[in-house]
Design goal:
This protein has helices at 15-26, 48-51, 92-102; strands spanning 3-11, 29-35, 54-61, 64-70, 83-89, 107-115, 118-125, 131-136. It has 140 residues and is an alpha+beta fold. It starts with a strand and ends with a strand.
């Protein structure tokens, strides 16, 4: 079992611009990138502008990673949610335990459950106001 922490930046429709900036400024390399239009289960009511927003991007910066996404529809981002921490595990039960521990006296933003992109994912703000995305990596 492995666990790693990754900073996760959410922007209001500016991730493509941010990626180009981080490539120049800190030598970031794109590992993966997906738009909302490429995601399964996205409503077909999304306009072309919304579909072209970045749903998830992963960059390599030196020996570490940085994740980014645009807020759906470029909607305003709540205070404390622009930079969060993604906790990645390769075991669903371990991810669930981490999620359950962090939600104690905190706030559930997204219940922990299976998603199209992860066998176990949830979003929680802990009792200190720090938001964590708990993500289980799919086995390849």
């Amino acid at each position: 079992m492995t666990v790693k922490l990754t900073p996760y930046i959410t922007l209001e429709g500016r991730v493509k611009e941010a990626i180009a900036f981080y490539e120049q400024a800190i030598g970031a390399e794109i590992l993966s990138i997906a738009t909302y239009g490429e995601m399964p289960d996205m409503p077909n009511t999304f306009t072309d502008d919304l579909s072209s927003l970045i749903a998830h991007a992963k960059l390599k910066v030196g020996e570490t990673e940085l994740m980014l996404s645009d807020s759906p529809g470029g909607s305003p981002i709540k205070s404390g949610k622009q930079v969060t921490i993604c906790i990645t595990s390769n075991d669903v039960e371990q991810s669930r335990r981490i999620y359950e521990a962090l939600r104690q006296d905190g706030q559930v933003n997204m219940p922990f459950k299976e998603e199209s992109f992860s066998p176990g994912f949830g979003d929680v703000t802990d009792k200190f106001g720090v938001t964590f995305q708990i993500y289980t990596e799919m086995e390849h």
